[in-house]
Design goal:
265 residues, five-stranded mixed beta sheet, 23% strand
């Protein structure tokens, strides 16, 4: 049974947790050796390699034990649970350079004094830069800094095989605004420019399989239902990345205008 070797982490933006973010959900196979092992409302992903397991994010504080249960349920061995998962499995943690200070300290930039912005700190073992690769066995993931949701928000791309076909998988770091402040006293300097640069990157990216940390951003609930009925794999959809990018960018611009209007009152 392969050990959990690596957790790929990103600091989460300040958000109000929803009840279903800590409600366990059964793990599911997405494509190839990639699985969703998240809760009902938050997705985080496991990749089985020839040399161990890679986990991307880990959910809310206290959810680490559920992550381990999901891994075991598969017959294998959100920032808050990363420290717990590391303690439970001995996995190494890798994260984008811009998020390392917040992961190490357990606070989100600009809101260190707020209880809602705190999570168990975790020591980052490997510091990543945009374009770095992570290799475990024969599996290679590429890290892309897609900042906005957090300064070092990281999206990942890798290849999977399904039915003899090579597929490009893209796991998006969230592009949601959450409770981020975009104007006035922004959550961190340059946040608006970061969001727009990230949207531009997504518009030019390609993915056969699009994954996201929030279930509603890649229609996970309906896909679970479709998986149960058999037929074509609902996760394979080359158009989904573009559609979700357009929706998310429009929502960002709407919230930016709303925050600017509120500031001018």
């Amino acid at each position: 049974m392969p050990a959990t070797r690596l957790v790929l982490a990103a600091a989460a933006a300040l958000v109000l947790a929803r009840p279903n973010w800590t409600e366990p959900a059964p793990p599911i196979k997405i494509v190839g050796n990639t699985y969703d092992i998240g809760s009902t409302g938050l997705s985080f992903f496991l990749i089985k390699t020839s040399a161990g397991l890679i986990v991307i994010d880990a959910g809310m504080p206290g959810y680490g034990a559920e992550v381990v249960k999901s891994i075991r349920a598969l017959g294998l061995d959100h920032a808050g649970a990363i420290a717990e998962l590391k303690r439970l499995t001995g996995a190494r943690v890798a994260a984008m350079r811009e998020d390392v200070p917040w992961l190490n300290s357990g606070t989100y930039p600009g809101d260190e004094q707020l209880v809602e912005a705190r999570f168990p700190p975790v020591k980052v073992d490997r510091v990543l830069n945009d374009g770095d690769t992570v290799r475990l066995g024969a599996t290679v993931l590429t890290a892309h800094r897609t900042a906005g949701h957090s300064p070092g928000c990281t999206s990942w791309t890798w290849d999977e095989m399904e039915g003899g076909r090579k597929l490009k998988v893209l796991e998006s770091c969230s592009t949601a605004v959450g409770l981020n402040r975009l104007v006035g006293r922004p959550s961190y300097p340059g946040i608006v420019a970061d969001y727009r640069k990230t949207f531009s990157w997504f518009h030019h990216a390609r993915a056969d399989v699009f994954l996201a940390p929030h279930a509603e951003h890649f229609d996970l609930y309906k896909k679970r239902e479709r998986l149960a009925t058999g037929g074509a794999n609902p996760f394979i959809d080359p158009n989904e990345l573009g559609q979700e990018t357009a929706r998310s960018e429009a929502e960002f611009e709407r919230l930016l205008a709303k925050q600017r209007a509120a500031l001018e009152k």
